[in-house]
Design goal:
This protein has 126 residues and is mostly helical. Helix content is 73%, strand content 0%. It has a domain at 33-119: Four Helix Bundle (Hemerythrin (Met), subunit A) (Up-down Bundle), CATH 1.20.120.160. Helix 2 (29-55) packs antiparallel against helix 5 (97-119).
């Protein structure tokens, strides 16, 4: 008799366009597009700040950086990045620096996939 093993939860999608659509409906299409463009432009710098601060063991700076990226990612619909940031935040809060370093690497490794998804996302007709 085999024991029942819970299935691993599927990772969140790289990009969920509904989040930007909700932002467009709440504000305007132009505001949502400007936010998405700004998010995309700043993404490498935000990830680099996380990598550097975790690398030198500066927990407060790393927490600030990861909270910023998590919030912006959630608003942009970058759900996998937001999830990874949440995991890193948890590791930083309990001072699990080895786990934090691993999560920071996962964030860095996810960056190209997210950049590709953002570059190929549907854009509204102007």
């Amino acid at each position: 008799m085999q024991k029942h093993r819970p299935q691993a939860e599927a990772p969140p999608p790289t990009l969920d366009g509904q989040h930007l659509q909700n932002l467009a409906e709440a504000c305007s299409t132009a505001a949502a597009e400007a936010f998405a463009d700004n998010y995309t432009a700043l993404l490498p710098q935000r990830v680099d700040r996380i990598i550097r601060s975790v690398g030198v063991g500066h927990r407060e700076m790393a927490l600030d950086a990861v909270l910023s990226l998590r919030t912006a990612s959630s608003m942009a619909g970058a759900l996998q990045m937001s999830h990874l940031c949440t995991q890193l935040e948890k590791a930083l809060v309990v001072a699990e620096l080895a786990a934090a370093a691993g999560m920071a690497r996962d964030i860095d490794l996810h960056l190209p996939e997210l950049q590709e998804a953002l570059a190929s996302r549907p854009r509204p007709d102007h």
